[in-house]
Amino acid sequence: MSIDFMIGFTIFIIIFIWVATMVPSLFIGLNAHAVDYDAVAYRTAVILVEDPGAAGSLATGPWEIQPDPRDVVRFGLARSKETPLILDENKVNRLFCSTVFVYPQDYQKRVIFGDYPYQFNISMKVTGEDQPRYVGDILPDEYGYIRRDVKIRSSSNASINKAMIMARGYNNSEDAAWNQFSILFDNKLLLEGDIKSPAYQINFHNERIIINITDIESTRNLTQNPLPPVGTPSGSNLTAINFYQRPFGSTSLSSWPPMKKYQNFTFIDGNSSADPPPFDVRNNVSLIFEPGFFGTMDPTATMFINLTFGMNPPQQFLNNTLTRPFDYDYNPVNVTQPALRDAVVEVAVW
Amino acid sequence: MAGLKDDAQWIVLMGFIVSFSLFFIAIVLNQSTVVGQTTAEAVLEFPKNDLREVRDVVIQSAYMNDEGGLFNNKTNVQNDIRTLSLSRQNAVVSFSNTTSGSFTYGEIHYNNGVMAYSESWTSH
Amino acid sequence: MVNDRGQLYTIEGIAAGLIMLLTAFIVVNSTSVYTPGDTHISDWQLEVLGGDALNMMNTAPNITIGKSPLQTIVETDDAGKSFQPMFLSLINNKTGPDRDHIQYMANVTYRESGGAVNSTFLSDSGRQLYGGEHAVRVSDWVIVEKRFPDCHFSSCSGKHAVLVEVLLWRD
Question: In angstroms, rounded to a whole number, what is the distance separating the alpha carbons of residues A228 and B96?
């Protein structure tokens, strides 16, 4: 070992270390992953907010009503492919439902895509709600990011209250043993009328429909037939809720039975659980039809929903056989129309 | 210099190896930036938003009418679309539409030099 | 003992060092370093977001209202000064508690009855656009019922398609 070798080698090592320390600063910010992550985040956001999603080929109905996660091929929150950025409330609720889908693998396969198992965080803040909804991990220091402004479409609903009952004459003035109240969905008017945009259309095939009938007591003649005390049968019995469809162009009604899994849709007098009829009804009936409830009906038919009340003793009650069925339509007096609320979606990928 | 031995040339060799690897890394990383760069540019250049908006407004205009020549709503709106697309979005937009009975149908052609798009649409 | 054999390792070491340094400098000069802030990524994110925001302003909250907020704003020349708060909250709101700092300037571009194209000022965020900031442009079509200043006949009143153009930049 000579001094000469020591000097030469030292010079070499010192310059090598110098160059080596230059290398990271050379490529600082030139992080190839960050660039890729931004692209993946963008793609994920596009799939989420501009696509309606897809269910498997063997499944019936849209993805958000599939009980089995394996029937969901792709998440997409848009109400329809014609209305990007208008999201469906039910799809949003389903996406953030962590009991059905397992984080992260169920999400990676259905919305992030790609061979690399990207980590992600999808969050959404709806204007007016306190807490953001999210699925995913805590953000690291560096990640790909995109933010999108969207609207969330909430479903329509109808309230039939005392004022409407009085104004429309929904109380039969005769003493009848059976009273009938019917609700009408005119598919032709709803889907092929003046309102063309799926953002505002009421499409009861794939949205939740809520019908609240309140103040039913006010239809009785309480002087002739006083209301029995609370806890005893009120004398009005919702015996059946029947569904009839009338195909387009036809005049005959045919009975349409709802699917077995949807038979609990009736809530009585503020009860929190639904049962199939019959029930004793005092004052309120709520009908909640989940998305997919009408999935098996003829898509162009008109649907009649008939509520039959058996009366003991015979008396006047909620009845519109002498007037006309309650129209579930675009009239804001009848139906609270679908509303679009502002929301912001953020996707982070790393 | 004739007395020099080549004992020490491995140091120069190591210098060369380090230099080459540095070059190699630089080229690879440079390529990957180009990938990100092109992704970003592709998103910026593809006029998805412009196209979607112009399609939307063209279809809206198809359902309008001239109110008996009083306001010329449809003619004005359709001329607005053609003129403004050309001058502000550098895109040639041409379209036509026909209404017969309850059906409205039409064609849209869009070309901004980067991409061309043609569509025939019908009301359902 | 002085002879030239003693220089062997030193010379080679210096030579190797020079080669490495030279390479490093060539690499530094030849790779144009893009940081994520330099590339077009932030432009693209801004453009997507701005397009979304305009689109949302041009969507009526329900069918009963009919007209979108943007239509009303253009028709009244933003008399209610509602463009600024609405647009700023759309582009700057995040899902978390903090807010972004995006500034904007909006114009309405329309076709005059003679065929020329003209722009009028609509709204801005109160911040000037200086040369240093890099702005992106987004636009959205709106059909409005409005008589523009150049129009003196009924044939040019009624409905018009106008472009709402917005310049966006980060503060």
Answer: 69
What phi and psi values does residue C102 have, to the nearest 5 degrees?
-100, 135
Cβ separation A32–B33 shorter than 8 A = yes
Q: Which residues of B touch A (CB under 8 A)?
A: 8, 11, 14-15, 18, 22, 25-26, 29, 32-33, 35-37, 39-40, 43, 52, 123-124
* Degrees to nearest 5, angle at CA C32 with C27 and C36: 125
Please write the tens of the pLDDT for every residue from C135-162.
889 999 999 988 888 877 776 778 889 9
8-state DSSP, A223: T
Does C24 share its domain with C40? Answer: no
ipTM attached to this prediction: 0.78
pLDDT tens-digit map of A247-276: 888 888 899 888 888 888 888 887 778 888
Match 């890394």 to its residue by tokens.
Answer: B25
Give, rounded to a whole angstrom, the gap between the first and last alpha carbons of chain B. Answer: 92
What are the residue ranges of helices labelled H in B46-100?
48-62, 73-88
What does the alpha-carbon distance between residue A242 and residue A246 come to, in Å, rounded to a whole number?
13
Q: Closest Cα partner for A136 from A165, A170, A167, A101?
A: A101
* Same domain for C75 and C6: no
Q: Answer for the pair B87, C117: CB distance below 8 angstroms, yes or no.
A: yes
Contact assessment for residue A213 and residue A320, using Cβ atoms and an 8 Å cutoff: no
A134 touches chain C (CB under 8 A): yes
Distance from CA of B2 to the nearest CA of C (A): 10
In terms of DSSP bridges, do strands A176-186 and A133-136 run parallel, antiparallel, or are they unpaired? unpaired
The stretches of B8-119 forming alpha helices (DSSP H) are 9-45, 48-62, 73-88
Query: Are C157 and C124 in contact, with CB atoms under 8 Å apart?
Result: no
Which single residue is written with the structure tokens 């560096």?
Answer: A142
Domain count, chain C: 2
Cα distances from A228 to residues A124, A165, A312, B20, B90, in angstroms, run 50, 22, 11, 97, 77
Contact across the interface for B40 and C158, Cβ inside 8 Å: no
Bridge partners, A255 (sequence order): A244
